[in-house]
Amino acid sequence: MGHARCLGSRLGSSGTALVHHLSRRQRQAVLCLAGASRDAVRSSSRRSPGIPSSLSALEKITSLTGGPAVAVPAPAVPLEQELQGLSPLEAQKRLTGRVKTARTLQDFGAVVNAGGRLIDAICLVAILSGLPRSVQRAAVPVLVPSSPSPPSTSGASIAGTARSQMQLSEADTAELGSLVARLLELVSLRLREFDSLGLVTVAVGLAKLSAYTPVPASAFRSLLAAVEPRLPGLGTKALANLMWALASAGVQPCGAWLSHFYAAVERQVDSFSGGDLANLMWGLAKFDLMPEVWLVDQVVAASLAQLQRSHSAADGATVLTCLARYYCSYNFRLPDEGLAAFLAALQPGLRSASPGDLVAIVHSAVCMSHMPSRAFMLDLYAVLKDRLAADPTLSHADFSRLLWSLSRVDSTPPRSWLREFVEVSAPKLPHLRPRALSELMWALACWDARPSPRFLSEFYRASSRRVALGEYVPAAIGDTLSALAKMGCRAPAPWLGGMLGAFCGALPEAASHELVAVLESVVEIIDDQDRPWLAAPAQRRALQRIADTAASKFAAYDACAHARLVLALARANCCPGSAWLNQQQASLASAWSSGGADIDSATAADLRQAYSQWEVQLDTGLAAELGLGAAGAGAEGQRPAQ
């Protein structure tokens, strides 16, 4: 530094010319330190970026040698300090501006804490419009149990007993709860200041937040009372959103309020969009509320007209789901022509439908006993084939509903689709519940499928785990065994023993036809090499318990059911005893003579053969029906049991 000053003192007035022979950085440093004239500095500044003259010599050298200085941002001023000294109107504007830039739950909390009672109705509408979006961004998917399951004795964890649900962390949940409590106080304070759309926006926002923290029903009832006089002035979207909010929060309006609401809907029914009509019907159906039939007809007609223009699968799936609910609750059903028109309107939009909407469409149609056309089902099968193999794929719940629906549709899928469907279904087996597993096997049986040994092995493994947990009910067991018998499958003895044990453990809940189905299927699907296992004492006792339970339900059996029951026991080589047979023969003779379902000659011959295996006197009336005389009846009864 001293050397630079010495050099500068020697330059004098003539040193300015020598400056130009130096490099640019050297030239600037020398001129600054030597106190060169302003003219020399200005002449050199034309060739280099200017340097503020107010800087000290050390700052100038630092700026020349170290690059541009970094600006240090000023510390953020707390919102409370920003509001100090402002008029109430200016403070409210400042708060509303902060709400528009808020992105996180903490941002909204800071606005509410700082504003307090200064927050007006406009600011509250903005908060309850943006806060749900911030909460949704902060939520993460969490697996929660869908229903309590008994603990496994083997300690194995069973997949498929949980579903994904969006949840906040514990800290965010606590913060949101306190924030909503403060917002409800402010809403109550400003209730008279809201306009009609503001009341609807507040209701929708609180309904969305109720999925993450409890919102008292009294808050919604206050909003209902405030909006009731303004219902005639609400537009179509506001009416639909209001009903959606009430249904989401589970707060059902009273009859008088609904009458005014229906009147407002009727005046604008032709002006609703497809999405608004879907939201409106969803809200009403969730409450099991059905307006007058003439209004429902108008809403359905408007929905169909919108779908014929938009082909929106999401809107159509919602409308059909609501109609299926009305059918189950009120026996209200569109004619087949109307349902066919809905499906035809949705058919062009199947490719863009979500997996859940595809399932909802076919499931709702089947629930209403409507069989879709072959053309519609072929398009649906093609789209489902892609959805089953790609993401996002069907959830396990949707997969179960799909199986239930497809097994009841008259249109059989193509063989190529069926082969791929079986392969795609195999990885889902461990995640399916017993009902879904039985629906899967029943659907494959209806389609005359032939599952591979690998698929059957996976199925036996998955269903065995469910049996160990005691989750199988008699209906699911009966359907599963019947489906395996229909497909000609053979079941291993350990798996079959588990199914028999589970069925016998729930015999009081079993229906009469399920008893017959289980007896028939067990005998048919047992492997030939496991026949000795079926004759073991444990299995004999199980078959006898099923037969004894069937005896208590003889009054519900017709001649065909009686014949199937006896033939199944005969094939199992299981004699139910003379008392049981006497009771059964009397019941069969009564059912036969009462003009119920008849049996053919081949079945009658099989019955004669079955009775011939057991030491029991054949009923005279039954012998006549079977084509045997009295002598023949006595002779048949003397044959020893095998």
TrEMBL record:
Q: Which GO terms describe its molecular function?
A: RNA binding
Extract the InterPro entries matched here.
FAST_kinase (IPR050870)
| Segment forming the signal sequence | none
Q: One biological-process term from Gene Ontology?
A: chloroplast rRNA processing
Judging by the UniProt lineage, the source's domain of life is Eukaryota
Any single GO CC term annotated in Swiss-Prot or TrEMBL for this entry: chloroplast
UniProt xrefs under PANTHER family:
FAST LEU-RICH DOMAIN-CONTAINING (PTHR21228), LD45607P (PTHR21228:SF40)
Q: What is this protein called?
A: Uncharacterized protein
Q: Which organism is it from?
A: Edaphochlamys debaryana
